[in-house]
Every structure is written in structure tokens, then in C-alpha cells.
Amino acid sequence: MQETLILSIGGSLIVPNGGINVDFLTKLNVFVRRNVSKNRRLFLVAGGGTTARHYIDGGKKVIKKITNDDLDWLGIHSSRLNAHLLRTIFRDLAHPRITENYDHRILNLREPVMIGAGWKPGWSTDYCAVMFAKNYNANLVINLSNLYWIYDKDPNVYHGAKVIEKTTWDFYQTLVGDKWTPGLSAPIDPIAAALSKELKLTVITTKGDDFRNLQRIVDGESFKGTVIRPFDVSSAFYDRQYYLGEKGEYRYVGGINKAKEILFKLANWYRALYIKLQFNPKTLLDVGCGTGELVHNLRLLGVDARGVELSPDALAMARDNVKPFLSQGDAEKLPFKNNSFEMVISIDVLEHLERSKLQKVVNETVRVAKKAVLHKIFTQENVLLDFFHSDDPSHVSVFSQGFWERLFINTKNVAVARKFFRLPSYLESVYLLKKND
């Protein structure tokens, strides 16, 4: 499955007051062509921006008062003009038709680029971008505007406006309300925000003409921009309740029912045997080890296994005989020297991290590994596994295998192994990285 990224491009980036922004479009052209591949496709939605405002202002000067529907239609047609410009630029990559009706999904889409424009009155093209995400199974929309951040007040009016780096849809809705008016100036319009909340979608807003920063977002590195998520998931989320299985998923012992406890134990024994029989490492580090059950099983099999875990609650729940082999630490800065362990693993950890932390954490696992790194990750392809999961709000980075493949290929000092035993992707996604000599 390809990763699908939605870029909602503010019309003022395409056509500012001075005319068509050729410099921006040239850089966008390079960015898109660099990032589309067999593992990734890009959907671009063009806003009406300054073009729409010129038409609206012109109409108001002539007849003084324009209906909301006509105001919206002026914006919609302006966005369609901008979209056709994008369609012209990406003619060799894009689907031949610009999407103007989001009730319909194109089946068997082959082109790596799709262009979208305004749909109908009642919302901005932000809503169209969210509909793209809904129709094509994307879980990230990147909103490109003239600012890096969302503020608690209009920064053009209030000198003391504060930057919001991370927030939830509940809080964001208190800023923008719940009603759409034509020409509303908001980072994400209220109707799009409501749908994003319903879909549990993540939206990142950032400055659209900083393509280096945009590349960092796409690559899973740290970036400048506001992240709006469906839930507030911080380190405090991973408390005793989570590790008892009371906040979603089936993963941990002692929780919701006996069947989940048995399933957890069987899964941990399968993983321990899998690692022992296929790789037989002498020393191993389990990053994000939770309550240390996998470390316990591996030690019973003769592996000198250690674990590192962020949550003190999880460590407190560990067996007494395994606690000496567990330590508290952050995956972003592992408390170990280079090449400390023959093998480093993470099991169902990376999907719990924010996109901006992924490359850094992967780099850390590579740094402390001597020979190999193994990551098991919950991905969009794990449909059978997903069937047995309850909702887990902490799954903030559930992407396609295409995303992870690209991230690992771009990781320094390792090669992605192709030939090793693993279960089918509808059950799990496992990646083996071998350290370069």
C-alpha cells in the first residue's frame, strides 16, 4: 500500500497579490517529483486565495451586497483555476481530471498525483482536502499557508498572540467556532475541523514556501508547524491504566478479560522464539519494553536481553526477577553507548510516536546496535490484526508500509534486509535493518 499525503495549498501561495508565484510553483514542482514513488502518492488541493478575494471585492464594489452562495462560488471557481494551473504543471504525473466532486472515489487509481479544487458552497477547500483523506485512506493532511504556526489570537491584530505547537480538535474548535462564512480566514475551516475530528485525522499546518521544512515533515523528522490531533497523547497517557489494557488495544496483561491476557502471553512467546530461533543474538535491547514480558521470555531462552521504557508505571508492573534488567529512558536519547547490543528491537512502539520523532528514534536504535535492528510496527496493511484491536488513541503514526520502507531506506549506516521469515502483512509488518560494516 502506498502512503497517501494530502497537501492543502493556500491559494495565496499560488497567486499572491503580485500575480502568479512562479518561484513557489517551481519549487513545488521539484518537491512533488522528488517525493512521488511506488511508495508514496501526493494529492494537491488548490485554494482560491487572493484570486477569490479580488473577485469578491470587485463584485461587492458593483452591487454592494452578494449572497453567501455567490461568494462561495467565486471562491470555488477561483480554486478551480488555480487547480488547473497545477494540473498543467503535473500533466505527466497527475490523473487527467481535476477532482471537483468528492462524493465519488476513483477506483484503481494509477497516477501518483491527484489535483483537487473547490466542491460546493458551505466550506473551504480545507474540507475538500479532508474528503480526499477520507476517500483514499490517508491519515495526514498538511495545510500550507503563509505562517508556520496556529496562534491563540490573530497575530496580525494582537501583538501578544501565542504560538500553538500541538493541540487537539476539541481545543481548536474553541478558536474557530462551528460555522462557516465565505472568506473566513482560519487555518482550517470549522466544517473541515469537525470532519477531521470525526475521522480522527491529524493535520499539520506550516509555512508553505519553506520546502526544506516540508521535506522534514514528510520524512518523519523534527519540523516547524502546528500539529492538530484527535487526542491528547503525551507521556502521561502511558500510565497504569494503559498497561492494564483499559485505554484500548489488547496488549497488556491483567486487563479487560482473560482472553486478552492469554493472547498477550502467546504473542510474547511467539516473538521471543522468533527472535531466538531466527537471529539468536547474544545481547539484545528491547526499546519500549513495557512491563518487560518479552525481555523475561528472551532471558529464559538464554538471550542476555535488556529493556528500556519511558513509563515508570510499566516498569513498576514488571516481574521482580526481570526488573534488574529494565531501565527508564527515552527512545529519542537511549542511555547506552554506541554498538552496545548485538541486536536492538522495538515491538509495536514506533506507531505510538509523533511523526516528527520517528527518524530520530530509528537513528538511536541504529546507534546502539552492533549488528541488527528489528522493528515490528502496526501499519495500515495489518487488516486482520486490526480486526482484533480495540481503538487505541495512542496510535498517532499508523502509516502504510510504503512510508516505513522509505524511512528505513533513508536511514544511514544500515541496509534493509529483504530475505528473512516474517508473517504476511495482513498480520504484521516487520523490518530488519542490518548495520553496515
UniProtKB/TrEMBL annotation:
Every Methyltransferase type domain range: 285-371
Gene Ontology molecular-function annotations: S-adenosylmethionine-dependent methyltransferase activity; UMP kinase activity
InterPro entries (alphabetical): AceGlu_kinase-like_sf (IPR036393), Asp/Glu/Uridylate_kinase (IPR001048), Methyltransf_11 (IPR013216), SAM-dependent_MTases_sf (IPR029063), Uridylate_kinase_arch/spir (IPR011818)
UniProt-listed Gene3D superfamilies: Acetylglutamate kinase-like, Vaccinia Virus protein VP39
Domain Aspartate/glutamate/uridylate kinase intervals: 4-200
GO BP of this protein: pyrimidine nucleotide biosynthetic process
CDD domains: AdoMet_MTases
Pfam families, alphabetized: AA_kinase, Methyltransf_11
NCBIfam families documented for this protein: pyrH_arch (TIGR02076)
The protein's name in its UniProt record: Aspartate/glutamate/uridylate kinase domain-containing protein
Naturally occurring in which organism (per UniProt): Candidatus Roizmanbacteria bacterium RIFOXYA1_FULL_41_12
